[in-house]
Write a structure and sequence with these properties.
Strand content: 25-35%
Shape: elongated
Largest sheet: 5 strands, antiparallel
Distance between the termini: 89 Å
CATH architecture of the largest domain: 2-Layer Sandwich
Strand order of the largest sheet: 4-3-7-6-5
Radius of gyration: 40 Å
Length: 486
C-alpha cells in the first residue's frame, strides 16, 4: 500500500498527498535548480528553477545525457564518485547558460537511493551566485583601485576616527610633509596644525558635524622638518548605518607655491587700486589742508582766546579727518599678516565706503547702505574682503559717468549664509563680455590691468563663498556675494 501523508489546509481540513505528489510540490517550490540523472547519465527530471537558471526546458534535456551539454571535465569524475556513494556540497563552479552566457553557481551532488539503499540516480542542486560573485569581484576591484590611488596619488589622504585620531595615512605623506604613514598613525589632527589654526579647524569640524556635508578649506600644517606649508584640504564625514558620523577622510595637497603666486597677483591688483585711488585721496585731503592753512593764519593773527579755541577746534577736526582718510587708505595698501579672524561685516563695509568716499565725490556718486539684518560676524581675513568690496564699488562708481547711486544690500539668505549685493545705475555689461569676466588680464578699461575680478573671485572662494554678476545694458549691474557667518 502506498503511504499517504495528511497536510492541513488553510481551513484545517485534512488534504492527503502521496509521496510522488509531495516530490512534485517540493521540486516546483524550491529556490534551487534541481536535476536528476539516472545511472546511464540521462536526465530524467528537472524543476522550474533549473529552467530559470540555465534556460533549458524539459524538452531540451529529458532523455539526453549530461555529456551532450557543456560541462567541465571534472564533472565526469564527480559523477563517477557519486555513483560510488560519495557526496559533494556547495562547490563553486561555472556553467554555461543556454544562450552561452557564463554563470557562477554553487552546486551539490548527492546519490539518490531507493528503499533498499541502492543508488538509482544522482541529484544535482544548483544555486545561481553570479550576482553575488560579481559584487564581490567588483568590491575587490574597487578596493584594489582605491589602494592603487591612495598609494600612488600625490595628494595626502588620511582617515580619522571620530576623536580626530589618524587611523590611516597614504604613502604620499612622506614626500608631502616628511612623515611616513607609520609615524602619522595614532597622532591627532592637532599634532599637525599650527596652534593659531586650531580654532579655525574646530569651526570647520563643527560645521561638518551639523551639516554632514564635505568642506574644502585652507590651513597651515607642520612638516617633519619643522617647516610650515599651506595645505588645501577636503574633509568629508563617513556615516554608519544609523546615519551617525563615525569617522572623517581628508584629501590634502601642498599649495604653498600657489599661495605665493596668488599673493603676487593680489599685491599687483592692490597696487593698481591704490594708485588709481590716490587722486581721489589727494583731492579729499586737499580740502582739509586748505582749511588748516587758512585757519592757521587766522589763529596767528588774533589774540582773542575765544576765536583761538574755535580755530583750534576746527583745525583738530580737519586733522582727524586727514588721519582717518590716511589710515583707511593704508589699511588697503599695507595689510596685516594673513590669518582668519572674527570681524563684523558691517565694520568691513563701512571702512570700505570710507576708502571710496573721495572717489565717489569726484564722480558725483552716492553710496547707500541698506542692511536688512542685525550685526553679522564673519570668520575671515578682513583686509582681503575689504579689497574685494573696494573692487566692486570702484567698478560701480566708474560705470556711472554722469553720477548716480550705488546700493549695498545685506541680507540673510540661508542657514549661516549672508548675501552682500552691490547694485549700480551704470551702463551695464554686454552679454558677450560677461563670459570673459574674471579672466586674468582681460579688461574693458583703458587703464585697467584685468586682475580685479580674478583676485576677488579667488578671495571669495577661499572664504567658502560664491560670487554672481547680473547685468543689463543701460540699466546697471549687480554683484552678489554669499559668505558664511558665525
Amino acid at each position: 500500500m502506498v503511504k499517504c501523508f495528511p497536510i492541513f489546509g488553510e481551513e484545517k481540513e485534512s488534504v492527503v498527498y502521496n509521496p510522488d505528489e509531495l516530490m512534485d510540490l517540493f521540486l516546483n517550490s524550491t529556490a534551487d535548480g534541481i536535476c536528476i540523472v539516472d545511472m546511464e547519465n540521462r536526465f530524467i527530471r528537472i524543476n522550474p528553477m533549473y529552467t530559470k537558471i540555465f534556460g533549458y526546458i524539459e524538452e531540451d534535456v529529458l532523455g539526453r545525457t549530461f555529456e551532450e551539454f557543456p560541462n567541465p571535465d571534472t564533472v565526469k569524475e564527480i559523477m563517477a564518485a557519486v555513483k560510488r556513494g560519495e557526496a559533494f556540497h556547495n562547490m563553486n563552479a561555472q556553467r554555461k547558460h543556454k544562450d552561452g552566457t557564463i554563470l557562477d553557481v554553487a552546486v551539490s551532488y548527492s546519490p539518490f537511493r531507493n528503499l533498499k539503499g541502492e543508488i538509482i540516480a544522482i541529484i544535482a542542486v544548483y544555486r545561481d551566485i553570479t550576482e553575488r560573485l560579481n559584487m564581490e569581484r567588483e568590491l575587490k576591484r574597487t578596493r584594489e583601485l582605491y589602494r592603487l590611488i591612495t598609494e600612488n596619488t600625490a595628494d595626502m589622504i588620511k582617515l580619522y576616527s571620530k576623536d580626530k585620531k589618524i587611523v590611516y595615512a597614504s604613502p604620499s605623506h612622506e614626500k608631502g610633509i616628511g612623515f611616513t604613514p607609520e609615524q602619522l598613525i595614532g597622532k591627532k589632527a592637532y599634532d599637525l596644525i599650527l596652534p593659531e589654526e586650531i580654532e579655525y579647524f574646530d569651526t570647520i569640524c563643527k560645521e561638518i558635524s551639523e551639516t554632514g556635508e564635505p568642506r574644502l578649506f585652507q590651513i597651515k600644517i607642520k612638516t617633519g622638518t619643522n617647516d610650515v606649508i599651506d595645505s588645501e584640504t577636503t574633509i568629508s564625514p563617513i556615516h554608519n548605518e544609523q546615519g551617525e558620523i563615525e569617522s572623517f577622510v581628508t584629501v590634502g595637497r601642498n599649495i604653498t607655491d600657489r599661495i605665493k603666486n596668488d599673493d603676487a597677483l593680489r599685491n599687483l591688483d592692490r597696487l593698481s587700486i591704490t594708485g588709481q585711488l590716490a587722486a581721489g585721496v589727494a583731492h579729499e585731503i586737499r580740502n582739509p589742508l586748505t582749511s588748516l592753512k587758512g585757519f592757521s593764519k587766522l589763529l596767528k593773527g588774533t589774540t582773542n582766546k575765544e576765536k583761538q579755541e574755535d580755530y583750534l577746534s576746527i583745525i583738530m577736526n580737519e586733522l582727524d579727518r586727514i588721519d582717518m582718510i590716511v589710515n583707511e587708505f593704508m589699511s588697503l595698501a599695507k595689510p596685516q599678516a594673513i590669518q582668519f579672524e572674527r570681524e563684523s561685516l558691517h565694520t568691513i563695509l563701512e571702512s570700505t565706503v570710507k576708502i571710496l568716499h573721495p572717489q565717489a565725490l569726484l564722480h558725483n556718486v552716492q553710496i547707500i547702505n541698506r542692511y536688512h539684518t542685525n550685526e553679522i560676524d564673519l570668520l575671515c581675513i578682513p583686509h582681503q574682503l575689504k579689497q574685494v568690496f573696494v573692487n566692486f564699488l570702484k567698478n560701480a562708481i566708474e560705470s556711472m559717468q554722469f553720477g548716480g547711486t550705488v546700493h549695498i544690500d545685506v541680507q540673510k539668505v540661508g542657514e549661516k549664509r549672508v548675501q552682500i549685493g552691490f547694485t549700480d545705475e551704470g551702463i551695464g555689461i554686454d552679454t558677450e563680455v560677461m563670459g570673459y569676466l574674471g579672466t586674468p588680464f582681460y579688461t574693458t578699461k583703458d587703464k585697467g590691468i584685468g586682475l580685479g575680478l580674478t583676485v576677488s573671485n579667488k578671495i571669495i572662494q577661499e572664504h567658502n563663498g560664491t560670487m554672481k554678476i547680473e547685468s543689463q545694458l543701460g540699466k546697471g549691474t549687480t554683484v552678489k556675494v554669499e559668505l558664511n557667518y558665525i
